[in-house]
Write a structure and sequence with these properties.
Layout (H helix, E strand, L loop, with lengths): L3 H19 L4 H14 L5 H4 L6 H18 L2 H13 L3 H16 L4 H18 L8 H11 L7 H14 L5 H26 L6 H4 L7 H6 L6 E6 L22 E7 L2 E4 L12 E5 L5 H10 L2 E8 L9 E8 L10 H4 L1 H5 L2 E7 L2 E3 L13 E7 H8 L4 E3 L12 H17 L4 H14 L5 H7 L2 H10 L1 H9 L1 H13 L4 H18 L2 H15 L7 H11 L11 H10 L3 H26 L6
Antiparallel strand pairs: 1-4, 1-5, 2-3, 2-4, 6-9, 6-10, 7-8, 7-9
Helix pairs in contact: 1-2, 2-20, 4-9, 4-18, 4-19, 5-6, 5-7, 6-7, 6-8, 6-10, 7-8, 7-26, 8-10, 8-26, 9-24, 9-25, 10-27, 17-18, 21-24, 22-24, 23-24, 23-25, 23-27, 24-25, 25-27
Length: 606
């Protein structure tokens, strides 16, 4: 029978897991609620409840975010992608192979979702130039980032498992451990993605494929509801809109009509601001979205706007001072859960959102009150000057053009620092937190990025989530929950050969990571697996490695990992696309991790 403290731990953990799976609560807030529940329940002392903020894994994570930002600001990541794009030429297989490998290589030294975010704009632009649908290349980029996170210590789950192993068994996992065991599953996975996965993906035409810098094609016009041209509405002197600003008119929020231009006295005002006052005689160029002709007529009559008989070709939007772009929410965004109305998006950024691409379909109606989700693609129209400012905003990824100037003169020092951090971590016994933070400080000192940029680069929600989860391992050990759950599993698999034990716990981690985050899986499942390892005749560090690698096998759902969610909107994917593409890779990864762990375990440093 479980003690009362263990029962309380399981209840609080199940509540947190339910909130995470349902999306009812942010992961960082759920983690803080968890430690507070364990503290108030007497399972942890106040000092233990907040000890996660002082753990070396958290310090290493913060340093990793800064190192990643240094590589990005100096253009290391971009130049690598651009050179591979030129190497690929007009060959889709070479482009997919190159971009997938770049994503994996970057993931060796940075957070997986950040690696995918860096490669994605370059890949979309290169794919568009050779006529390849982005839906054929973006899932491989996400999977490449996940696979590249296996043979490295610089992955959140890998850092966590290393720290937990050191605390419980006095032996941490090194960069060399992860490289030796993770190389085989990562390599086999990449071969499968490059050789098979991308060819099986659907050819869809989300906005990333349709958008061009200086022309609108037929598919884009259809997406925006402009297939038959822009509707022109003349503002009559008796119209209630006369003298009213565009923002106060309610055309977008109430009637779902997007004004993309105003003809006034022979002059065309493209992407007018919300403060622009409407005048009698103005002709409004309106994108009607999903509204039918009858609905437009009805709105025009109620507002005493005269619908002109002629239709305007959408090519009018090609004017040099304005254009269409696709923007995604960046991994560092603070806008999740907020609406465009709450953000005053048009006033704040000076661009209009014409549609939101979500889960394989566009949303035209009610955009102002639609709560933003990670993975949404926003179809924006506005002046190029405002778009260039948007490109420098850390909240967004703009899938075209150049962002703010890069510090290319610091590129070589940035590469040297990153290689030094990796080398020292592999060849010495120094704490990875110490080495990584030293590298982060050097990045700032030599001017790869400023201190303000370093603060902005840190994904504080991830830091708080990890710091909140780490004390859970203390609670699992103290209450005996790990021993109890381990014994229950051992009763069912007792007597099996070591390789089968590794397979069971690897498969369990790979299943849990599809519904929980990799970090949660590492903290919850890792202690149980390492506790059961000696009984199965397996060294605990073998089992810790296998579980850590399995948390990267988040291939089956878009919500299994932020890298998947990031590419969903731009690729026009549906959840079933990830299941179809990821299931063979998932089985392959579990088998390869088991073989590599058991086969190479004896060769690992003691």
């Amino acid at each position: 029978m479980l003690p009362l403290s263990a029962v309380w731990l399981l209840l609080v953990s199940m509540l947190m897991a339910g909130l995470l799976v349902s999306g009812g609560l942010r992961p960082d807030l759920a983690a803080l609620i968890l430690v507070l529940g364990l503290s108030f329940g007497g399972v942890l002392s106040p000092q233990e409840a907040f000890s996660g903020f002082s753990r070396s894994a958290v310090i290493a994570l913060i340093a990793l975010f800064i190192l990643t930002a240094g590589l990005n600001r100096t253009g290391v990541s971009r130049i690598l992608g651009e050179r591979l794009s030129r190497w690929a030429g007009n060959s889709p297989p070479r482009l997919v192979a190159g971009m997938t490998l770049v994503s994996a290589m970057l993931s060796l030294a940075m957070n997986s979702v950040t690696a995918a975010a860096v490669v994605m704009p370059i890949a979309v632009q290169a794919a568009r130039q050779i006529g390849l649908s982005p839906s054929r290349i973006l899932i491989p980029i996400a999977y490449g980032a996940l696979l590249g996170g296996m043979p490295t210590l610089f992955t959140t789950a890998n850092l966590l498992l290393s720290g937990l192993l050191r605390e419980s068994h006095g032996r941490s996992l090194s960069m060399l451990d992860f490289f030796m065991v993770g190389f085989l599953p990562a390599s086999l996975g990449l071969v499968w993605v490059i050789g098979v996965t991308w060819r099986k993906l659907p050819e869809r035409s989300p906005v990333g494929q349709w958008m061009h810098l200086h022309r609108l094609n037929r598919e884009l016009a259809e997406l925006y509801g402009l297939k038959n041209g822009l509707v022109e509405l003349l503002v009559e002197p008796s119209s209630p809109l006369s003298g009213v600003s565009l923002g106060e008119s309610g055309l977008a929020s109430r009637y779902h009509l997007t004004v993309v231009g105003i003809r006034r006295r022979g002059r065309l005002i493209l992407s007018p601001t919300s403060s622009e006052s409407l005048r009698p005689g103005d002709v409004l160029l309106v994108a009607t979205g999903s509204l039918g002709e009858a609905s437009v007529e009805e709105v025009a009559q109620s507002l005493r706007l005269r619908k002109l008989a002629r239709l305007v070709a959408p090519e009018v939007l090609e004017a040099g001072e304005a254009g269409l772009v696709e923007i995604l929410l960046s991994p560092h965004t603070t806008l999740i859960g907020k609406t465009l109305r709450e953000l005053r998006f048009r006033e704040r950024y000076g661009v209009q959102i014409l549609a939101i691409w979500r889960e394989g379909r566009p949303i035209w109606v009610g955009l102002a009150d639609e709560r933003l989700r990670f993975g949404d693609a926003l179809l924006a129209y506005g002046p190029w000057q405002r778009i260039r400012i948007l490109q420098g905003d850390p909240e967004f990824i703009v899938l075209q053009g150049d962002g703010e100037p890069l510090r290319t003169s610091r590129r070589i020092p940035a590469i040297g620092i990153m290689l030094g951090v990796i080398g020292v971590s592999m060849l010495t016994s120094r704490s990875v937190a110490e080495v990584a933070m030293a590298g982060a400080v050097l990045m700032i000192l030599i001017g790869c990025l400023t201190m303000e940029e370093a603060y902005r680069a840190i994904e504080w929600p991830t830091v708080f989530m990890v710091a909140g989860l780490l004390p859970l391992s203390i609670a699992i050990s103290r209450t005996g929950a790990a021993e109890s759950l381990g014994e229950m599993l051992l009763q069912r698999i007792g007597g099996v050969p070591p390789w089968m034990g590794v397979l069971v716990f690897t498969g369990g981690a790979a299943i849990l990571t599809q519904v929980l985050s990799a970090s949660v899986t590492a903290v919850v499942w890792g202690p149980i697996a390492m506790q059961a390892a000696p009984v199965l005749g397996i060294p605990p560090h073998w089992m810790g490695l296998a579980v850590a690698l399995a948390t990267s096998a988040a291939f089956l759902t878009p919500m299994a990992h932020p890298a998947n969610a990031l590419v969903m909107g731009a690729g026009g994917y549906q959840p079933k696309d990830f299941l179809k593409a990821g299931l063979p890779l998932w089985f392959l990864s579990i088998a390869a991790i088991t073989i590599s762990t058991v086969g190479l375990g004896p060769w690992l440093p003691k």
